[in-house]
Design brief:
Elements (H helix, E strand, L loop, with lengths): L12 E5 L3 H12 L4 E3 L5 E4 L10 E6 L13 E3 L3 H8 L5 E8 L5 E6 L5 E6 L2
Helix pairs in contact: 1-2
């Protein structure tokens, strides 16, 4: 099949809705060992994940918006990490829980499924 220049990777951005921004921010900063930065319009409380627009992948933000509760949604975000077991070890210490321990997904690497402090399920993905 010939390459189509109009086809793009399907995800360009993600948002994880939260009820307690301080708690959620601390959770993701701990599990992913990263610093989230304030962003977005004044009426929405947003903290963005670091990104490099010159490489593959999508970035996103934690978001608190009145009237839009966290948890119970059907979209799953996977964070790219070096070894998902290492990051998974931080989940419970940061107040979350492990839904599924590290498991192989064949030639595509490994995943862990976890639940954050706001009730949102997310994934960790690594090649090893």
């Amino acid at each position: 099949m010939a390459s189509n220049p109009l086809i793009r990777n399907p995800v360009s951005w993600f948002e994880i809705y939260v009820q307690d921004m301080s708690r959620a921010k601390q959770f993701y900063e701990t599990v992913l060992e990263t610093e989230l930065k304030p962003m977005g319009p004044a009426e929405i409380n947003m903290y963005g994940f670091a990104s490099n627009m010159d490489i593959y992948g999508a970035s996103g933000a934690l978001v608190y918006m009145p009237g839009f509760p966290s948890g119970g949604n059907s979209t799953l975000v996977y964070f790219n990490v070096d070894d998902c077991a290492t990051n998974a070890a931080r989940v419970e210490k940061a107040g979350g829980k492990i839904q599924r321990d590290k498991m192989s997904i064949g030639e595509y690497g490994f995943i862990v499924l976890a639940v954050d402090t706001e009730g949102n399920m997310f994934g960790l993905h690594s090649l090893s």
